[in-house]
Amino acid sequence: MFAAVFFCFVFFAFFALYYTSPELYTFFLQERKGTKMWVFMRYRGSYMAAVICVIIFCMFLVYRTPVDEVSEGMCACKDCVRQQTHSFWFNELYDLSIQPLLTRKNYVLSEDIFKYWKGLQKNKKEANYTEVVEQLFSLFPDKTQYSDASPKRCRTCAVIGNSGNLKGSHYGHLIDLHDFVIRINMGPTKGYENDVGSKTTHRFLYPESAMDVDNSTYLVLSPFKILDMEWLISAFTTKNITRTYKKVRPSVNANRQKVMILHPAFIKYVHETWLLKRAKYPSTGFLAIIFALHVCDQVSTFGFGADQYGNWYHYFEKTSHNIRTGAHSGSFEFDTMMQLYLENKIQVYRGR
Ligand SMILES: *[C@@H]1O[C@H](CO)[C@@H](O)[C@H](O)[C@H]1NC(C)=O
Ligand SMILES: *[C@@H]1O[C@H](CO)[C@@H](O)[C@H](O)[C@H]1NC(C)=O
Ligand SMILES: *[C@@H]1O[C@H](CO)[C@@H](O)[C@H](O)[C@H]1NC(C)=O
């Protein structure tokens, strides 16, 4: 169809040219003696061709492929995250050109990103970023992950927050049905399978929130400073970094082949674009949600926000203290999540 329209335009252009300016037309013929020219010569002077073209063009305008059909091909799920919607808000913020994960190809940071990132958590002794990244990729895999979106793929993802509203929710089975189950920081599964499931494909953490993961789980580091990258290296080698701004685990058990590092530019994007810098930095949970929007076709969230009584606490902690006033404002992130839910971009399971 597009080819037909294209040829019509070519025909049409030359007819127009012929009748308005014969000299220019002859000039063109001398300049370009392609096969299209030959076709044209056969029909030269034929008004029929022009008429047919106009008719085809009009039919094309009337029956052209609806926009929805194009975007339905984005993935094999019923609704796809990437699908264009009429949400101005979402289209404005969602930027697939920003790569969530660090690789050797994309690690160089522009000046403003580097400045932003270094401003997040200051350190007295600064290591050389380039050298640290080189060391990272000599230890951990360096490949572009999850760029396999296709009309045949329906990748469903569950992002599991650590909210107390998971207690007694019986979401476990539902959560385990997802292709990716992304967990945050120290949120355990052992002993809570009924409510939080037992599968973990990815765990997002930073040094101060680290825990062991089993060898089939991807460990995704959210680096808020260069020292976090150094800690990751140390945790798999010398184990001699034991403090950042507070005491941290010197090592973690994890499969070295399954370590990934969030890109500082992605952290900046989430912080400034999605959260409008309304928190000191984005939480690991919120980073995981936006990560899922980039690599998954359908996203469900569990265990975010307060419980039914308005209490904010972790499902695995006995005492319920208020975490709404922490370094990252849980409530503002939750508002953004609810907006994503209203725009039909994520599913939100509120628990109890
Ligand atoms: C960091 O290390 C690289 C390579 O070793 C070097 O070219 C660069 O100048 C260093 N940067 C700073 C700020 O020291
Ligand atoms: C992963 O763990 C399983 C069981 O603990 C073990 O059999 C397997 O060899 C491990 N794989 C790697 C790559 O360490
Ligand atoms: C850790 O060990 C390495 C190599 O042994 C050394 O270069 C580095 O300075 C040590 N770091 C700390 C914080 O002790």
From TrEMBL:
Substrate binds at Q121, N162, N185, Y245, Y281, G285, G305, H314, H328. InterPro entries: Beta-gal_alpha2-3_sialyltrans, Glyco_trans_29, GT29-like_sf, Sialyl_trans. It is a single-pass type II membrane protein. It is found in: Golgi apparatus, Golgi stack membrane; Secreted. GO terms for molecular function: beta-D-galactosyl-(1->3)-N-acetyl-beta-D-galactosaminide alpha-2,3- sialyltransferase; beta-galactoside (CMP) alpha-2,3-sialyltransferase activity. It is an enzyme of class 2 (transferase). Pfam families: Glyco_transf_29. Belongs to the glycosyltransferase 29 family. This is CMP-N-acetylneuraminate-beta-galactosamide-alpha-2,3-sialyltransferase 1. It comes from Cyprinus carpio (Common carp). The lineage of its organism: Eukaryota, Metazoa, Chordata, Craniata, Vertebrata.
